[in-house]
Amino acid sequence: MATLSSNMTRSSSTDSSALSNILVGAAVEDDGVSGRMPLSTPPTSVNDNDSIDSAKSHVHALNPVEEETSRRPKRARTGLSTYNVKSLLDAQEQAGSSRSRNASGLTGRTLVDEEDDGAFLGKKDVDSTPMGWEPTELPPRPAKVQRRPSVKDRVKKAASKVVGSVLGKRGRDAMEAGKRKLGMGEVEESPKQSKILKELDMGPKGVLDELDLSDDEFAMPPPRPAKRAKIEDDDTAMKLSKPTAPPLKIYDGKRMKKWQREGLYVGQNAGMDPTKKGGRKKLQKQRPGTAGSDGTGTSEANETQVDDSKTDDTKQTDSKAESERTFMTLPMFNYLDKTRDFTIPFDIYAPTLRKGDEKPKDWTKVNKNRLVGEAKEIWEREKLPNSVCVCASPAAGEQGCEEDCLNRIMQYECTDDNCRLPAEACSNRAFSELAARMKKGGSFDVGVEVIKTSNRGFGVRSCRTYSPGQIIMEYTGEIVTEGECQRRMREEYTDKQCYYLMELERGFIIDGTKGSRARFINHSCSPNCEVRMVRVDNTPRMAVFAGENGVMTGEELTYDYNFDNFGASKQVCHCGAADCRGFLSKRLNANERKKMAKEENERKRKAAEEAQKNAESEARKKRAQTDRGANWRGWVAVDDPETKERLKAEKKEREENEKNSTRAKRLAARRQSLPAAGTAEKPAVLKKKNSSRRKTTHLEPKPTEEEAITGAEDTSLTKSTSLTNTETRTISNGSKFHEELDDRPSTALAHTSISTIVRKTEVSISTTETQEDEAPLIDLAPSAIETEQLAPLKPVNTTMTEISRPTSQGTEASAAPSKHVEAAKSGLSRTASKGKEALKSVGEAFKNSFRGGSVSSGSGAPKLKQSTLSFGKAN
Ligand SMILES: C[S@@+](CC[C@H](N)C(=O)[O-])C[C@H]1O[C@@H](n2cnc3c(N)ncnc32)[C@H](O)[C@@H]1O
């Protein structure tokens, strides 16, 4: 067994810190090198597997068998004990637990403590080893171990480079002084800066307290210089600093919207929502009167020049729009489980078709017009001579061939043959612009896509912005004659819901069934596009142009179909415009609109009347149903003889019952107690001479159902019955009123009397007229009318005087009714039931007497004197 020496050695085979095999009390005899004392160095690192396994090695060392297998150098192994490094590590941890760890996660401290200025492992540390030995003598101080500088050290070093001579002095005062010394000048501290400096100043060991923290370091990093911004001289710098925007055009003294030529969202501002109708208006409000180029090419020089003319206002608006452009915030976690609507910022929204979006079937895309059949021959014969425009060269930065260009007015596109201006200075070359765009062929250049709408089939959406009047796409298809078009409609398209026919010019029609995307453009009464014909190289072509407000990215393209409806049926319009005409119909001029409005009003009035009538009849039906009561069994066909029989029997039974009822008996008794007709005393009112006329009107309830049924069989009888009953009922119910009437002509009175009889089922009006110079009349005494509790009724004398009326036939005509009146009088005076007949004849008499004679009044004309049918109170 090897003995332990008080000397500690390090394996000579190691010369790095990683090699930390610590040998204690090397056995000299096994060493092979007698008398040579090993160098004693402390372990330098515990980050060494071999070291960690040293305990194991120790065991091995004690075991000669195992020792054979060990790979350690024989010199180091033989008869040596090692430190239990693990224990040492534990001890070290305990001693220096408050110290910081290095990047490897371990303390980074060695047994040579920096704080102790490199002092060797002290007694305290050695005590903690389980070796059970005491160092008797400390070896000489070893050379300082080289180690990697810590982060802290490196920061300090960096700081020292910055502030140079002030290194070592702590505090900002010293730093400022140093900076002054270096000629860096005084720097004003911002509040944020001073706060951070204060924090860094804390404690005597503030690591960063000597760093120079100027305002620049807190500010946002400066924008990256443009790659090409290698500024040669001041002039170039000036030029580069100017933004390169498309030129602004001044129209009517107002600036208009700026339309750029590149990018999906050119000309659109942040904050606008192309999916909302008000978006564009809002945008225009924000930027009133801003103008822009029409999207056709202008030179860079022009752009710079026009930009110079930008007012401060425009610049401010631009910078505002710029500042509005914010990044979309990241979703917060607590929003993930909530569903809510949000608007995607306009420049993130990409109107692109997605997988699975419905695509039109039965569509053959044809991007060029094709002449079909007859059309070809006629087409070639009808070539028109070319016109030439005389437009002057435009001023710098402007374009020529504007609104007053002859070619434009004549619907000709300018070409090198008919226009003297160079292409880039001419604004009337829409189709050539379109051709250039289509040649590029990118989705931005094509600029539209076909989408499925909710209620109008397919439609077309813009994938970019278009300036007002800018060409969007050509309407192409097969060019056919009118005859061929008719034939196709009759024979080929009978089962089609949509036609894609567009009149190109007189006699020619473009059938877009096989055509470009333009055929899918839907109608709107308030459209954002228009379709125009333009002759290009003498060939008429049809194209869709942006309307006067331009078109925004994502908007659906629409134009006014101005449909001529040949058939009676009109298609309902779903454009959703505020001023929608309601149908896919023709646009009307002012007069036509007026006429249409009038007709529409009339139609509405009639519809309202009809509706009211219907409502009334419904209400009547309802009322009748509720009035019928529980015994109502429904309608029966009166044509059915069985039913008729049954109804008659029922009616008879009812009448019998009524006759035998107590009420009937009471009424009969009352009737018997009345004085006989013709012998009744004069009512009080007759004694009173009254020069004024008085009219008493009784409102009568509607006829009962029974009466109605009876009425179907014998109208006149029903009327009479009704009248009699009415009179009786009216009085017994007390539902009455009377009104004082002014003097009125006797003819009117005659009318009233007639209406009393003829319209007896509705209202019964009995009129009393008293004239001083005439015979006494029978009337109700006022007291009787006003009395609440009426005395028992008695038949009263019905006196009717002769009625004379002014007719062309003279007195003969008036004599006729008087006969009937007499008859009625006698009838009435007998019994109440016979009175019905009498009244009927009276009615007839009146009717007859008025038939065929015009009523006139005059001093010599006979007067209608009196007509009274009344029941009065017996004295
Ligand atoms: C030239 S096509 C337009 C493309 C069509 N939506 C499609 O799916 O093929 C015309 C037809 O579209 C429909 N349409 C267009 N605009 C409409 C509107 N504003 N309201 C209702 N239907 C409309 C009508 O059926 C019309 O006959």
UniProtKB/TrEMBL annotation:
<feature type="compositionally biased region" description="Basic and acidic residues">
    <location>
        <begin position="593"/>
        <end position="619"/>
    </location>
</feature>
<keyword id="KW-0949">S-adenosyl-L-methionine</keyword>
<feature type="region of interest" description="Disordered">
    <location>
        <begin position="593"/>
        <end position="748"/>
    </location>
</feature>
<feature type="region of interest" description="Disordered">
    <location>
        <begin position="788"/>
        <end position="875"/>
    </location>
</feature>
<keyword id="KW-0539">Nucleus</keyword>
<dbReference type="InterPro" id="IPR046341">
    <property type="entry name" value="SET_dom_sf"/>
</dbReference>
<feature type="region of interest" description="Disordered">
    <location>
        <begin position="265"/>
        <end position="323"/>
    </location>
</feature>
<feature type="domain" description="AWS">
    <location>
        <begin position="384"/>
        <end position="435"/>
    </location>
</feature>
<feature type="compositionally biased region" description="Basic and acidic residues">
    <location>
        <begin position="641"/>
        <end position="661"/>
    </location>
</feature>
<dbReference type="InterPro" id="IPR003616">
    <property type="entry name" value="Post-SET_dom"/>
</dbReference>
<feature type="compositionally biased region" description="Low complexity">
    <location>
        <begin position="715"/>
        <end position="732"/>
    </location>
</feature>
<feature type="region of interest" description="Disordered">
    <location>
        <begin position="29"/>
        <end position="253"/>
    </location>
</feature>
<feature type="compositionally biased region" description="Basic and acidic residues">
    <location>
        <begin position="170"/>
        <end position="179"/>
    </location>
</feature>
<dbReference type="InterPro" id="IPR006560">
    <property type="entry name" value="AWS_dom"/>
</dbReference>
<dbReference type="GO" id="GO:0042054">
    <property type="term" value="F:histone methyltransferase activity"/>
</dbReference>
<feature type="compositionally biased region" description="Acidic residues">
    <location>
        <begin position="209"/>
        <end position="218"/>
    </location>
</feature>
<dbReference type="InterPro" id="IPR050777">
    <property type="entry name" value="SET2_Histone-Lys_MeTrsfase"/>
</dbReference>
<feature type="compositionally biased region" description="Polar residues">
    <location>
        <begin position="94"/>
        <end position="107"/>
    </location>
</feature>
<dbReference type="Pfam" id="PF00856">
    <property type="entry name" value="SET"/>
</dbReference>
<dbReference type="InterPro" id="IPR001214">
    <property type="entry name" value="SET_dom"/>
</dbReference>
<keyword id="KW-0158">Chromosome</keyword>
<feature type="compositionally biased region" description="Basic residues">
    <location>
        <begin position="685"/>
        <end position="696"/>
    </location>
</feature>
<protein>
    <recommendedName>
        <fullName>SET domain-containing protein</fullName>
    </recommendedName>
</protein>
<feature type="compositionally biased region" description="Basic and acidic residues">
    <location>
        <begin position="736"/>
        <end position="745"/>
    </location>
</feature>
<dbReference type="Pfam" id="PF17907">
    <property type="entry name" value="AWS"/>
</dbReference>
<keyword id="KW-0808">Transferase</keyword>
<feature type="compositionally biased region" description="Basic and acidic residues">
    <location>
        <begin position="189"/>
        <end position="202"/>
    </location>
</feature>
<feature type="compositionally biased region" description="Polar residues">
    <location>
        <begin position="796"/>
        <end position="812"/>
    </location>
</feature>
<feature type="compositionally biased region" description="Basic residues">
    <location>
        <begin position="144"/>
        <end position="159"/>
    </location>
</feature>
<dbReference type="GO" id="GO:0032259">
    <property type="term" value="P:methylation"/>
</dbReference>
<dbReference type="GO" id="GO:0005694">
    <property type="term" value="C:chromosome"/>
</dbReference>
<feature type="domain" description="SET">
    <location>
        <begin position="446"/>
        <end position="562"/>
    </location>
</feature>
<feature type="compositionally biased region" description="Polar residues">
    <location>
        <begin position="865"/>
        <end position="875"/>
    </location>
</feature>
<feature type="domain" description="Post-SET">
    <location>
        <begin position="569"/>
        <end position="585"/>
    </location>
</feature>
<feature type="compositionally biased region" description="Basic and acidic residues">
    <location>
        <begin position="307"/>
        <end position="323"/>
    </location>
</feature>
<dbReference type="GO" id="GO:0005634">
    <property type="term" value="C:nucleus"/>
</dbReference>
<keyword id="KW-0489">Methyltransferase</keyword>
<feature type="compositionally biased region" description="Polar residues">
    <location>
        <begin position="42"/>
        <end position="54"/>
    </location>
</feature>
